[in-house]
Amino acid sequence: MSRLLSRSLFTRAIKVFVIAAVFSFLFSVLFRALNSSYALYASNTTIKSNLILSNFINPYEYRRTSIDTSQELPAAQLVSVITKNSSQTVFTQYGNVAEVLNSLKIKYSDEDIVIPALDEEIAHTGKIRVVYVDRKMDEESSMISFDTKVVEDPNLELGKEKVVQQGVLGAFTSRYELTYKDGELVDRKLVDSFVSEQPQSKIIAKGTKIIRKRVTLPDGSQFTYCETKSVKVTAYDPSCTGCSNRTALGYELKRGVIAVDPNVIPFHTEMYVPGYGVGVALDTGGVIKGDFIDVGYASAQERGQNWAGTRLNHTIYLACPS
């Protein structure tokens, strides 16, 4: 009875062993089918020796593809890969820089800077640096001022002015190429510059049409004029600081001599100044600029008796040109 029991137990053990072996074989086949490629860092010099040491094969296992025992496998190397957004240190058996970057799925373009060069071999404990280069165009505009042109208008009364055309500012554009490395601006280069918008001149019509008018003087006489101006009026005499008894044109300084800005009132223009009388533009001075006249007297006493202070916005009457 004990023999039968021992034989039965032995038979069952054999069956369990066979079933376990079958499952082990099937699991091994399935595992290898699902994992057709492996990452292996070489610690030996040949493919076969590394596969054996890593328990991928045993020395007697049959392989469809023969393993050349003389073929050398590069040893794994430690490499630091640095980009703008990441830094990683990896073991790799790839030979050059491009292969390492591609294996890590690090993208770069022809514009980017890779150090060392893509075709250089990886050195032990080496370092790869990828600098991303971006170029953009930028424009800057500055204003171009317009000029003012004065044209004579025979249909406009003498002394009158009218804006015929308003001035318009122009624009000057400069284009720059901006170079960024890892997002930081490192270069700004002028590419070209041009007038992007032409300025438009301001045109002023100046009347030349003579229309004779008359104003009655205090003595009842008539003064014929063609133009009026609103000016600032002061008085002077030979005793004033910087003055003499001769005018800039060489005339004797006396009543009837008037200093003007010749750019506003031409020399030798006759005019009537209310409160002073009739005079002629025969003098000028450094402080006489714009709509400003200085009426002359022969002495300080005469000036003091007839004129005091400064008169603003004083209307004067200019005789018609001959």
Automatic annotation (TrEMBL):
<protein>
    <submittedName>
        <fullName>G5 domain-containing protein</fullName>
    </submittedName>
</protein>
<dbReference type="GO" id="GO:0009254">
    <property type="term" value="P:peptidoglycan turnover"/>
</dbReference>
<keyword id="KW-0732">Signal</keyword>
<dbReference type="Pfam" id="PF06725">
    <property type="entry name" value="3D"/>
</dbReference>
<dbReference type="GO" id="GO:0019867">
    <property type="term" value="C:outer membrane"/>
</dbReference>
<feature type="domain" description="G5">
    <location>
        <begin position="130"/>
        <end position="210"/>
    </location>
</feature>
<dbReference type="GO" id="GO:0004553">
    <property type="term" value="F:hydrolase activity, hydrolyzing O-glycosyl compounds"/>
</dbReference>
<dbReference type="InterPro" id="IPR010611">
    <property type="entry name" value="3D_dom"/>
</dbReference>
<dbReference type="Pfam" id="PF03990">
    <property type="entry name" value="DUF348"/>
</dbReference>
<dbReference type="InterPro" id="IPR051933">
    <property type="entry name" value="Resuscitation_pf_RpfB"/>
</dbReference>
<dbReference type="Pfam" id="PF07501">
    <property type="entry name" value="G5"/>
</dbReference>
<dbReference type="InterPro" id="IPR011098">
    <property type="entry name" value="G5_dom"/>
</dbReference>
<dbReference type="InterPro" id="IPR036908">
    <property type="entry name" value="RlpA-like_sf"/>
</dbReference>
<dbReference type="InterPro" id="IPR007137">
    <property type="entry name" value="DUF348"/>
</dbReference>
